[in-house]
Amino acid sequence: MTEILGQTILDQIVDQNFPLASFPAEKYSQAVADTLEGNFDLGKINRSEVKINGGIENDGQTISLELAPYPLPLRYINEYKKLIHVDQQIKVFSYLIFESNKISRSKLKIVQLPDLKDLDSQIQNFYEIEKNWKAPEEDDKTIEKDAKTSTKK
Fold it and tell me: For 85, phi and psi rounded to 5 degrees?
């Protein structure tokens, strides 16, 4: 855990002025966890990611490691602007972020990591959640409401 001046963190996040290591993969393997960890720096705001099967944008998965002050992806610039006080020393933590259309309704799962020693098993846990995920069933009221809304157009 490192402390960084809020203004420095905010500048890096707003400008997206931090190292980003990104690479593609066809499927998950231990090599993915090793590469994520190898491209990650615990000393400064940064992000390491892998896009499996094209990433979340292409109905695959995006797995990233981020060093950030809050459990929010670094791309959430507006939220960070509201949360960070520029004059304070702010603790930063490492977060594992798993993005998939099948992980949750938000398509996002974030875990704070005390260290990186169990990175592979943490990612494997996400794959288990995704593998067992079932699409939420729409209830009759939602379907009726959608039907009424579409007929009013």
Answer: -95, 120
Q: Per the domain annotation, does 141 fall within a domain?
A: no
pTM reported for the whole predicted model = 0.81
Tell me how far apart the alpha carbons of residues 50 and 25 are, in angstroms, rounded to a whole number: 7
Host domain of residue 60: 2-131
Write b or e for each residue in 67-106: b if 16 or more Cβ atoms lie within 10 A of its Cβ, otherwise e.
Answer: bbbbebbbeeeeebeeebeeeeebebbbbbbbbbeebeee
Instruction: Provide the pLDDT for residue 84.
Output: 95
- What local confidence, expressed as pLDDT, does residue 137 receive? 72
Taking each helix axis from N to C end, the angle separating 119-131 and 30-38, rounded to the nearest 10 degrees, works out to 130
Any domain includes 82: yes
Which of the listed ranges 2-6, 132-136, 138-142 does the model predict with the highest average pLDDT? 2-6
